[in-house]
Amino acid sequence: MEIERRIKEIWDGIAKPLDGLGRFETIIARIGAIEGDTRIDISSKAVIVLCADNGIVEEGISQSGQEVTAHVAESMGRGESSVCRMAKAAGADVIAVDIGINSKISGEGIVHRKIAYGTKNFLKEPAMTKEEVLQAVTVGIELVKDCKKRGYTLLATGEMGIGNTTTSAAVTAALLGCPAKDVAGRGAGLSKEGLSRKYEVINSALEKYQFQRTDTRSINALNILAAVGGLDIAGLTGVFIGGGLYRVPIVMDGSISAAAALAAQRLVPGIKEFIIPSHVSKEPAAGKIMQELGLHPVIDGEMALGEGTGAVMMFSLLDIALSVYENRTGFQDISVQQYVRFD
Ligand SMILES: O=C(O)c1ccc[n+]([C@@H]2O[C@H](COP(=O)([O-])O)[C@@H](O)[C@H]2O)c1
Ligand SMILES: Cc1cc2nc[nH]c2cc1C
User: CA-CA-CA-CA torsion for 306, 307, 313, 319, nearest 10 degrees?
Assistant: First the structure.
C-alpha cells in the first residue's frame, strides 16, 4: 500500500491532469506494489497458454471438433497462431503448454505437461478426478516459478481448447450461483440452436452436481473444477496462485482465464490483488466475473479469441503508459505549479 501511494505521488508530479492516465496509473502502481519497488520492471514478458481438450465437446456445444485444439496448439508451437503474431509485435514470448490435449503433440515449441488425454464428458461423469485438478493447479504454480527463475517480470494467461467456453461458463455459473444464460455465449462462433444446447448442457450439469445453490461460497472450488472444469482452467487457477506466491503480476485474458481467476480467489482469498485485468471478453461470463472480483479491464473490444490475445494487447498498453512514468516530465520542467488534489 505504501509503495502504491508513493507511485501515485510520482504520477501526480508528472505534468498532466491529475489521474490523467486513469486506471493505467492505478495499474502501474499495483504492479509496483507486487514487485515491491517504485521502479517498475515489465521489461521481460511472456504469455502462458495452456492447451487442453474437453470431453463435453461430444454434446455438440462447439462449432469445432476436438482435433482443432491440437492443430492450433501445434501452430502456436511454430509461432504462427494469433497470439504469436501479437506477442511478436508486443515484444513478448509465448509459452505454449500441452496440459491435456487428447492426442500426442509433436513438434518444437511446446512445453509438455500433459496430465490426461482430455477430460471426461461432464454430463456423464465428473470431468476430472480431484487428483488431476490438484496436478493441474500444481503445473500452473510451477510454470510461474520457472518463469520467475528465467527472469520474466510480467506474465499473462492464455488458453486453447475447443469447448472451453462451456466448461468455463459452467465453472462460473457454479461459483456465482447463476443460470447458464447469464454466463454462456457463442464461444468460437456457435449457432443459435447450438447456444440453446449449450445452456441445456450447463444447466443439467449444475443440477447433476447440485451446484444450483445460493450459498455457492460453501462449495469448494476444487470440487467445481473437478466436476465441470477443464485441465486448462485448473492450470490457470494455479498460474494465478503462483503470481501471488512468487510476486509476479499476472495479466488476465478473457472469459476462460477469468473463470480460473475467480476459482483462485475462492481458494486463496486476496489473490485477486496480484491480477491485472486486460479486456472484457464478449462471453457474458467475463463481465460478471469482473464485477464479482472488483476488477476494471481497460479494453472493451468484444474480443472472443482466447490464446491470451487480449492480455498481450494489454502488454503494449502498459509499456506505453510506463514510458510516461519512467521518463517523467515534471510540472517544474515546464514552469507550471503542480496541481492540487481536492479530495
Ligand atoms: O477468451 C475468451 O473469452 C474466448 C471467447 C470465445 C472463444 N475463445 C476461444 O475459442 C475456443 C473455445 O470456443 P468453443 O466455442 O469451442 O467453446 C477456445 O480455444 C478459446 O480460446 C475464447
Ligand atoms: C482456428 C481457431 C483458433 C483458436 N484460437 C483459440 N481458439 C480458437 C478456435 C479456433 C477454431
Answer: 140
Domain boundaries of the chain, sorted by first residue: 41-317
Ligand nearest the Cα atom of residue 71: 2
State pTM to two decimals. 0.98
297 in contact with ligand 1, CB cutoff 6 A:
no
Atom of ligand 1 nearest to the CA of 281: 3
Distance CA 294, CA 274 (A): 13
96-140 residue pLDDT tens: 999 999 999 987 899 999 999 999 999 999 999 999 999 999 999
Residue 193's alpha-carbon distances to 87, 114, 116, 142, 205, in angstroms, are: 35, 33, 31, 40, 19
- Distance (Å, rounded) from C-alpha 173 to C-alpha 77? 32
- Phi, psi (degrees; rounded to nearest 5) at 123: -75, -25
* CA 100 remoteness from chain centre: 18
For residue 104, give the C-alpha cell: 500426442
**Burial tier of 22 (Cβ tally within 10 Å: 0-12, 13-18, 19+):** exposed
List pLDDT tens digits, range 252-296. 999 999 999 999 999 999 999 999 999 999 999 999 999 999 999
Q: Please give all residues whose beta carbon lies within 6 A of any atom in ligand 2, as ranges.
A: 64, 68, 72, 160, 188, 305-307
Contact 290, 296 (CB under 8 A): yes
Q: 187 with 285: CB under 8 angstroms?
A: no
Q: Is the ipTM of this complex over 0.90?
A: yes
What does the longest C-alpha to C-alpha distance in the chain come to?
71
What fold, for 41-317? Rossmann fold (3.40.50)
Does 341 or 326 have the greater pLDDT score? 326
CA distance 55 to 216: 25
